[in-house]
Amino acid sequence: MRPAESSSTTPASPSRFDVVVVGGGVIGLSVAWRAAARGLSVAVVDPAPGSGASHAAAGMLAPVSEVTYTEEPLLGLGLTSLARWPAFAAELARESGQELDLRREGTLDVAFGADDLAALGELGAFMEKLGLPVERLTGRECRRLEPMLAPSVRGGLLAPDDAWVDPRRVTRALRRALAGRGVPVLRERAAEILVAGDTVTGVRLASSPGTTADVRPAFSGALDTAADARPSPDTAADVRPAPGPDTAARVVNAGCVVLAAGAWAGGLAGVPEGVLPPVRPVKGQIMRLRSAVPVLSRCVRGTVHGSPVYLVPRGDGELVVGATQEELGFDTRITAGGLWELLRDARELVPGVTELEVADVVAGLRPGTPDNLPLIGPTGLPGLHLATGHHRSGVLLAPLTADLVVDGLTGAADPGHPCSPSRFEDRA
Amino acid sequence: MADELIIAGEKFSSRLIMGTGGAPSLEVLDQALVASGTQLTTVAMRRLDPSSQGSVLEVLRRRGIEVLPNTAGCYTAGEAVLTARLAREALGTSWVKLEVISDERTLLPDPIETFDAAERLVADGFTVLPYIGDDPALARRLEQAGCAAVMPLGAPIGSGLGIRNPHNIELIVEAASVPVVLDAGIGTASDAALAMELGCDAVLLATAVTRAQRPDLMAAAMRGAVEAGRQARLAGRIPRRRYAEASSPRVP
After folding, report:
1. In 10 A of CB B48, how many CB atoms?
2. Tens-digit pLDDT profile for residues B90-127
3. A139-173 residues labelled b (16+ CB within 10 A) or e (exposed)
4. Which residues in A lie closer than 8 A to residue B104 (C-beta atoms)?
């Protein structure tokens, strides 16, 4: 089942790829995997794959419980992608030999206090109007489902079709699968998109070879130094560029470039002004706790006196508590206030969290766009495709994004798609 | 002659001041701000890096809307003064909406810390617009301390409870010689119209628009309500009567 790693470290790198993907997070790796499955020759460039927003993300696949006024288009995308997750995960698990911890027990959204309950009631009415499957529960019913919930819970909404997955396992599995397919993941920083005439010809790599210690510059996609410094069990799956005329010039030639660099996608050199994706970093601080016995059996989110928090349980006893949303540029500092808010609200939901071990604290940068919808597909620069701007929904939208990008790479893009980058290109 | 709002010598033709918190996306916020017709909008300095790209500040700049930095999230005069100074440095404006809250649950303004901070900021050359409870005595004291406007609440921030004590708002308006801006508590258009009918010079609101099901439509409603309320105030309402008075002339 599992591809032999030794064979995957020496792929026959062509001198010119069909596609080079800039960014090795859940989006870039998914795109590369699906493109390779479609028979395209692919390379991925990222100094520290899987260490950016994907490393921080909780992995909620929760389009129903995350629905917001004015964001019906995002809901539609989320539902479509959620429906593709089971097959995507099954195929990825088979190909990589890795468990993804995909779970489908739904999300329970709970309220404390009359104000939060009233707001949840309104949200429930909005969901019902949209025809979404939700169940309204009393406080007692909530606690029957999740006995560790605080007794003060007043009521809840259960979105039974919501799911979740461990994003760190997903990126690890994707790298294994890519290795199995002989797709090189170059641990390098992309410095510039190369254009000849009006067509993309590849990517120039940063002058100094990327190392895990060298991930701060603009296109690393990497945030969490502690995690980056940790030797990854999958490092063997990634390769340095094979020596050759092209890599000596530190250039990866390709027919198409997919820009999947998350929050960093907005500033890559070589991309014309009107084509640069309008993404901005939206900081999220997130905490992982560990318990010997599972505390929850499904995702629980709640509003505590107007402040939102969620708890995501993993099969191995990990409990993810997230997440702040801060507009502070490329700032990944972990702050006292951020952690305090997370713990304060998590403790209101589940008083027992205070007994748990703190396993991990990370700040990641979500790639935000003006309309909260991602940018997916071909751009005004022939050969340049985007797969970024997924904000809070990168893990959820990965299967759909990969399919849409591959459609675009094979000339089957829908120019009228709500995620088409053309919606911003006219504004520049 | 144009009916302008004048704060510290600055003229605004719109009497609706917007806040930016709570919008689901920058695009929705942008559409709402345009629909509101606002010319002055508050931004929370503690939740923003002014130098970052694609932020709410960029939306305001693109729309030519003046930025009013606020000190939201501060619990002490010391924090508020520091935040105001950082804002002045970062944004190049000496205007500040002074907001010092007393507790998380109510977010009610702390009168003592607010007054303390106001005195220090005025002395430091700031144009200070303090957010306060609906307290006529405190409003007067802040005006005497040199504040450029006073911003009494209608109800707690984000509560949408409307104007809980219209009588106090009228008393504040009556005594004030600086503009009175009704700040916080607006739930829907009639609340904004009432604020203007009571004699407020402007209304500041955010949540009522940003968390509405259709923020742009609610913003347009608020714009109309503020204009209608202002016109009604200027026109002068008729006295209330216990019994009817025929509106058509009696036939002799």
Report:
1. 21
2. 889 999 999 999 998 899 999 999 999 999 999 999 99
3. beebbebbebbbeebbbbbbbebbbbbbbbbbbbb
4. 305
Tell me which residue of A171, A142, A166 sits closest to A320, measured CA to CA: A166
Count, residues in chain A: 428
Q: Do B47 and A326 touch (CB under 8 A)?
A: yes
CATH of the domain at B74: 3.20.20.70
B57-86 residue pLDDT tens: 888 999 999 999 999 989 999 999 999 999
Rounded distance, CA A151 to CA B185, Å? Answer: 31
Q: Is residue A390 classed as helix, strand or coil in its secondary structure? A: coil
Q: Distance (Å) from the C-alpha of residue A24 to the closest C-alpha of chain B?
A: 23
Cα(A380)–Cα(A370) distance, rounded to whole angstroms?
A: 19
Q: Is B243 a domain residue?
A: no
pLDDT tens string A158-180: 999 999 999 999 999 999 999 99
Q: Name the residue type at position B53.
A: Q
Give the three-state DSSP class for A61: strand
Domain ranges of chain A: 13-56+168-278+370-425, 107-160+281-368
Sign, CA dihedral A45-A226-A93-A265, equals: negative
Is the Cβ of B211 closer than 8 Å to some Cβ of chain A? yes
Measure in Å the smallest separation between the Cα of A327 and chain B Cα atoms: 5
- Residue-by-residue DSSP string for B83-94: HHHHHHHHH---
In a domain, B35, yes or no: yes
CA distance B58 to chain A (A): 11
Which one is catalytic: B15, B88, B97, B230?
B97
Question: Is residue B97 flagged as an active site residue?
Answer: yes
Give CATH for domain A107-160+281-368. 3.30.9.10
Beta carbons of A82 and A295 less than 8 angstroms apart: no
Contact A353, B75 (CB under 8 A): no
| B240 is a domain residue | no
Chain A positions in Cβ-Cβ contact with residue B54 (cut-off 8 Å): 266, 278-280, 368, 370
* pLDDT tens digits for range B197-229: 999 999 999 999 999 999 999 999 999 999 999
- Binary contact (A327, B55; C-beta < 8 A): yes
User: Residues 6 or more apart from A302 whose CB is under 8 A from it?
Assistant: A109, A110, A111, A112, A116, A153, A308, A309, A310, A345, A348, A349
Specify the CATH class of A13-56+168-278+370-425 in words.
alpha beta
pLDDT band, residue B188 (cuts 50/70/90): very high
Residues of A in contact with B24 (CB under 8 A): 68-71, 372
Q: What integer pLDDT is reported at residue A14 of this predicted model?
A: 67
The pLDDT of residue A10 is above 80: no
CB-based contact (8 Å) between B248 and chain A? Answer: no
Q: Kindly provide the b/e burial profile for residues B89-109, where b requires at least 16 CB atoms within 10 angstroms of the residue's own CB.
A: eebeebbbbbbbbbeeeebbb
Rounded to a whole number of angstroms, the distance from the CA of A237 to the nearest CA of chain B is: 35
* Predicted pLDDT at B245: 84
Quick check: B21 contacting A, CB < 8 Å? no
- Name the residue with tokens 């002339």: B249
Task: Flag whether residue A266 sits within 8 Å of chain B, measured between CB atoms.
Answer: yes
Q: Does B28 touch chain A (CB under 8 A)?
A: yes
Peptide bond connecting A159 to the previous residue in cis, omega within 30 degrees of 0: no
Whether B215 and chain A come into contact, CB under 8 Å, resolves to yes
Contact residues, chain B, for A366 at CB < 8 Å: none
Cβ neighbors of B137 (< 8 A, separation 6 or more) are: none
Distance CA A242, CA A11 (A): 9
